[in-house]
């Protein structure tokens, strides 16, 4: 009876449990893309994701629909999805936007990050160094995502975090291709610079370190596209 009081003609009420499940599946698939678990050229089926998450195909299809609309995924066949091809023009556009937005977020983080946040970054940095030394690409990419997004969350803006996540959904799968170039070692030098700048609350220094990291990856990827 209580629920009936909220019903209005022409308004469809979606059960909360179903909506929550769809959001949870969307978040899981998003994490797989952001931490490099879905590799360019790899096809993933709706059923395989549904089985992995222990859900029906319906919430998986909804998550994939949202991610396809965001240019993070593309339909390869009727039941399979993959990472969209990266053109030179799209790579340049992503680099240019990341160059501005991520630098802003990092500068804000320098003003707002606390000692606990600095300690967490130090832990992520240690994993990055270990993974690079071991040649463990998957662990490196997970730690890279965790390191960067710890900084962006420290900026204290949900809006800028959402923008950066959308950018990373489009570019981060291609970080898998950077290992053979030695970029992970170069990136860790930039990560060390970011960490030092944030520890010193130096907004300009962390802005420069973020931009150097973005440019180093861009240079490798643009050469690979040739």
UniProtKB/TrEMBL annotation:
The keyword Transcription regulation applies. Keywords: DNA-binding, Transcription, Transcription regulation. It holds the Pfam family GntR. GO terms for molecular function: DNA binding; DNA-binding transcription factor activity. SUPFAM superfamilies: GntR ligand-binding domain-like (SSF48008), Winged helix' DNA-binding domain (SSF46785). The keyword Transcription applies. InterPro entries: GntR_C, TF_FadR/GntR_C, Tscrpt_reg_HTH_GntR, WH-like_DNA-bd_sf, WH_DNA-bd_sf. Residues 19-86 form the HTH gntR-type domain. Coiled coil: none annotated. This is GntR family transcriptional regulator.
């Amino acid at each position: 009876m209580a629920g009936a009081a909220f019903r209005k003609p022409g308004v469809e009420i979606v059960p909360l449990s179903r909506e929550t499940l769809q959001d949870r599946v969307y978040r899981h698939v998003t994490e797989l893309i952001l931490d490099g678990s879905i590799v360019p050229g790899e096809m993933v089926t709706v059923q395989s994701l549904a089985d992995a998450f222990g859900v029906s195909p319906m919430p998986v299809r909804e998550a994939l629909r949202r991610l396809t609309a965001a240019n993070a995924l593309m339909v390869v066949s009727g039941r399979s999805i993959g990472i969209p091809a990266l053109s030179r023009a799209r790579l340049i556009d992503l680099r240019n936007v990341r160059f501005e937005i991520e630098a802003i977020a990092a500068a804000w983080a320098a003003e707002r990050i606390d000692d606990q946040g600095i300690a967490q970054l130090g832990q992520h940095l240690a994993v990055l160094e270990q993974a690079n030394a071991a040649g463990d690409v998957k662990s490196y990419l997970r730690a890279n995502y965790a390191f960067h997004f710890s900084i962006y969350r420290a900026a204290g803006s949900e809006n800028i975090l959402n923008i950066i996540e959308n950018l990373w959904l489009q570019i981060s799968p291609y970080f898998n291709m950077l290992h053979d170039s030695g970029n992970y070692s170069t990136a860790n030098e930039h990560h060390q610079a970011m960490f030092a700048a944030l520890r010193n609350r130096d907004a300009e220094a962390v802005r420069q370190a973020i931009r150097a990291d973005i440019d180093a990856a861009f240079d490798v990827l643009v050469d690979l596209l040739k």
